[in-house]
Amino acid sequence: MKLIDSLIRESTKINNQGFTLVELLITLLISSFIMSAAYSAYVTQQRSQTAQNQVVEMQQNLRSAMSFLSSEIRMAGYKPPSSNEDTGVTDLTKGKIEFTWEKDSDEITNTPDMRIIYQFSNADDSAPVDGIADNGAASFRRKINGGNLQPVADDIVAVEFLYTLTDNTDNGSYDPPKKLTPSASEYKDITAVTISLLARSPYEDRNFTNSLIYQTASGQNWGPFDDGFRRRLLISTVQLRNMAL
Amino acid sequence: MSNYKLYPAINSGFTLIEAIIAMAILSIGIISLYAMQITSIQQNNRASNITIATNWAAEKTEEIINMPYDQLLDVDGDGTNQDPNDKGIDEVGGGNFGLDDVTAAETPDGQQVSPDGNYTIYWNVATDHPIPGNKTVQVNVIDNNQQMKNVLSVQYIKEEPI
């Protein structure tokens, strides 16, 4: 018993000695390794999460805008067989499209029921309207029946409408003329519209430089912008199958 | 005093080796979080590629809708007369009426590279499928940079004008 007691006393004596300064410093050093690793992991993941959030928002914006635009432009010129109203495209430039279609054969109003315009607002893309937002990006807008221009999609950098006309030259191959600004007499010959839409992320990323050049359907180049915005370009062709009705 | 016997050597602490092992295990956990981020970036990129590929497929389909019925040709013949008993199953070739063709060996009925060179658009025609008097056209888009990892397909059935 005496031996055990002395052992206990011995061990409790050691237990009460605490840590030396060197031990504490080593612990601090090791834990600082862990902390710095955890912190840098947190920072990189935070950065990547923010960037990916922006990318998702941009892609979503672009996809919905394109699907909205193409499904509505597809209706251009539509009218029921009983209607005698004059529907079709009415004002076309590379940055603006205006078209009409008739919902029913109601001839009380002599104008088509739907007159739709897609363009940037004049404040965002001042004359001459080139389809490129003056301040880098703006909301792309839609106007219906003489109302106000309402935003369809935010953060759109630029838009281009390229119009395909019927191939009237008899040279053995199908090579229809394509024009950015057709004249009013050519409106009835338009068979398709190719939409090029360039969207960008809502916020700039300081750790990223965008030096890409985006080529539209007509071959005009957008960029390089050399800034911190990520961008996506989408090109889609809409056949105006209702135009010849 | 006899209580002390129950807790022998409790204050011996960790050795440096133990601490290093713990750190190694922790770092494996942190690295797996990086893998999560990388997957998320890859999948976002893939989503973007699928959007663009869908767009090309839709564009080609629009073109096919406007093409005359007689000009939609099954060039390699693997979509013609493959179903003698009209059950809608490709008994002769054993394939899918050649609709899934995307490589040169499989001889798709038409192909086109997107203007930016990133996507190849293939289309295949099966005549009198699913029922006589119709043609099934399948547009397959593949990503030339292999970021999308799969083939995007759109099917359209065109009827013979009466």
Terminal-residue CA separation of chain B: 107 Å
**How are the strands ordered across the major sheet of chain B?**
1-2-3-4
Shape of chain B: elongated
State Rg of chain A.
Answer: 32 Å
Quaternary structure: heterodimer
Query: Helicity of chain B, in percent?
Result: 25-40%
Number of helices of chain A: 2
Please provide the count of β strands of chain A: 10
| SSE sequence of chain B, one letter per element | HEEEE
Sheet having the most strands of chain B: 4 strands, antiparallel
Mean pLDDT of chain B: 83
Q: Which spans of chain B have pLDDT < 50 for at least 5 consecutive residues? A: none
Outline type of chain A: elongated
Give the SSE order of chain A as H and E letters. Answer: HHEEEEEEEEEE
Query: End-to-end span of chain A in angstroms?
Result: 112 Å
Structural class of chain B: alpha+beta
What percentage of the residues of chain B does DSSP assign to strands (E)? Answer: 15-25%
How many alpha or pi helices of chain B? 1
- Largest interface, with Cβ-Cβ < 8 Å? A-B, 36 and 32 residues
Low-confidence stretches of chain A: none
Tell me what you see in this structure.
The complex is a heterodimer of chains A (245) and B (162). With 245 residues, chain A is of the alpha+beta class. Helix content of chain A is 27%, strand content 27%. The longest helix of chain A has 53 residues. The mean pLDDT of chain A is 87. Helices cover 31% and strands 19% of the residues of chain B. Chain B is built from 1 helix and 4 strands, in the order αββββ. Chains A and B meet through helix 1, helix 2 and strand 10 of A and helix 1 of B.
Question: In short, what is this structure?
Answer:
With 245 residues, chain A is α+β, with helices and mostly antiparallel strands.
Question: What is the secondary structure topology, with strand pairs?
Answer:
The complex is a heterodimer of chains A (245) and B (162).
Chain A lengths: L1 H14 L5 H53 L15 E5 L2 E6 L12 E7 L17 E7 L5 E16 L12 E2 L10 E11 L13 E2 L5 E2 L8 E9 L6
Antiparallel strand pairs in A: 1-2, 2-3, 3-4, 4-5, 5-6, 5-7, 7-10, 8-9
Chain B lengths: L15 H51 L43 E4 L5 E9 L6 E10 L8 E8 L3
Antiparallel strand pairs in B: 1-2, 2-3, 3-4
